[in-house]
Amino acid sequence: MISIEDMASFCKRRGFIYPNSEIYGGIAGFFDYGPLGVELKNNIKKEWWRYHVQSRADIVGIDGAVISSPKVWKASGHVDSFADIMVECGNCHERYRGDQLIEDNLKIRADGFSDKKINSLIKEHKLKCGVCSKPLKDNASSFNLMFETFIGPIKNDESKTYLRPETAQLIFTNFKLTHENARLRLPFGIAQIGRSFRNEISPRNFLFRCREFEQMEIEYFVHPDKREECDFIKDVLNHQIIVYSEEMQKKNTKARKMGINEALKKKIIRNPWHAYWLALEHKWFVSLGAKSDNFRIRQHLKDELSHYSTDTWDLEYNFPFGFKELEGIADRGSFDLDQHIKHSKKDLSLFDEEKKKKIVPYVISEPSLGVDRTFLVFLFDAYEYDKKRDNVVLKLHPKLAPFNVGIFPLLSNKKELIKKSKDVFDLLKNEFTCFYDESGSIGRRYFRQDEVGTPYCVTIDFDSLKKNDVTIRDRDSTRQIRVKIKNLNEIIKELLNNKIKFEKAGKLVK
Ligand code: GAP
Questions:
Q1: What pLDDT score was predicted for residue 142?
Q2: How far is the CA of 241 from the centre of ligand 1 (A)?
Q3: Which DSSP state fits 209?
C-alpha cells in the first residue's frame, strides 16, 4: 500500500483532491474535491443511499440544515462534553491533541485518556515538543471542538450558535415529524448525508482527519422492550469478519476472523442489532470492491466511549498508518430523544398500540460513516502499480469510477475520425459518464484513463468509418474487442453491470 503522503500527491496530480486555499499558502484541515474527486464522491454517496435507503422499506432519508438553534447542541451534550484534550508547548506554542501525543511518543492507545492521565504521562516520560525539542509542560486541558458562528448582524452570546459537529442530531430533532409523515413503524431508521464541522486540534493524515467533512449516518430506532429482536440477523449470520473485542484488547490477544453466528453465540457481540449493522456495513464495502481482510471490527474500551454511548464498535480499516476508525456504530440508547424531550419539553415518544402506553425508542445502532474516509478506502484498495504497463491502474468498481467510458479518435488530426468519435460520445453521453480525449498517443490516452479508474475505453479508427464498429478496451486485462456501434450502449451497460465479461480470446462471455 502506498503512503498517505503519496496518496495525497496522486490525488492532487490526477484532479481528485486539492488542498484548500493553496494559492494563499493553504489552510490545515480543509480540502476541495477536483473534477474526478467530485464524481467519485458523488458515486459513493449515491451507492450508500441506494443500499441503505432506497432499497429498504424500513429506512427513509432527510437532509437537515448545517446550523440549528444552540439549544439543540446544549441538549445533545455537545456544548458541555464534545471536547478533546489539548497540550500546548510553553516555548513555541505548538498545539497537540493529547491522545495523539501519547500514541506517537509511547506507542500505546490513548483514546479517552483524561487530562490528568495525559499530564502524568508527559511528566513521567519527560516528553518533548516535536517542533522545538523543549520539554512539554503538564498543561493538558479540555478543548471544545465545535465551530462557533453568529446568527444575524449582532455578535453576542444570544446570537451565538455552532456549525453541526455531526449530522445525527437533525435526525433526533426531526424524529416525530419524520415518523408521522413517512408512516414508519418500529423498528425503523432515518438516514442522512451531509457536512459536519469539527475544530480539530491537529488535523492530519490528509482526508482522514479534517475540520470540514461529510458523514453518512443512520439512527436506527427499536422498541425499548424489543432491544434484542433483530429479524434481519439471519441475512448476515454466515458473514465472516475480523473481530477485536474489548476482552481481546485487554488480554492482549490478536484480533480473529469469525462468523457473526460465532460472535453472537459466544456473546463477543452482545446485541444482534449491533452484529447485524457491523456485518452489513462491511458487506457494503466489499460489494463495491474493497478488500475484505483490510477491515476489522473493534469494540471501544469503557474509557473511550462517547458521552452518549454505552457500547460502541468501530468498523476499522487498515490505513497505511495502521488500523483506524472508518465507521462508528454506537449504542446511544434513548439518550438523545430523552435529552430533547427534557430540554424542548415536547413529547417525542411514540404510542405502543399493543401495550397501550407511550414509549421512547432506543437507538441500539447508529452506523456513522465518514464520506472522506470512505473515499480514501476505495482509493487505497483500488490503487495498483502495474509493472508490465509501468503505470498506475486504479481498479475502482465500475459503479464508483469517475467515468464509465473514455472515448478516443485513433488520430487527432483526422476530421472524419473526430466527427465519428463525437457522434459516439453523443450516443453514450445520456446513459454513461463519458470522457472524450483526442490529445497524445493512443497508448498515453489509455494510460491516463487506467490511472483514474475508467473501466472501458472506446476507440474509433479508420475501419469504424467503413464498418460502423469500434474497439472496446478493458482496463483490468487490457483486452480488446470489436463491436458494432449500434450495439455499443447495450454492451457497455452489460459490462458495467457485470452481466458479460471479456474473455482471453477477445470475446465477450456471459
Ligand atoms: N454521530 C456519531 C458520530 O459523529 P464519530 O465517531 O464522531 O460519531 C463518525 O464520527 C464518523 O465520521 C467517523 O467514523 C469518521 O468516519 C467520520 N469523522 C469523524 N471525524 C472526522 C474528521 N475530523 N475528519 C474526517 N472524518 C471524520
A1: 94
A2: 22
A3: B
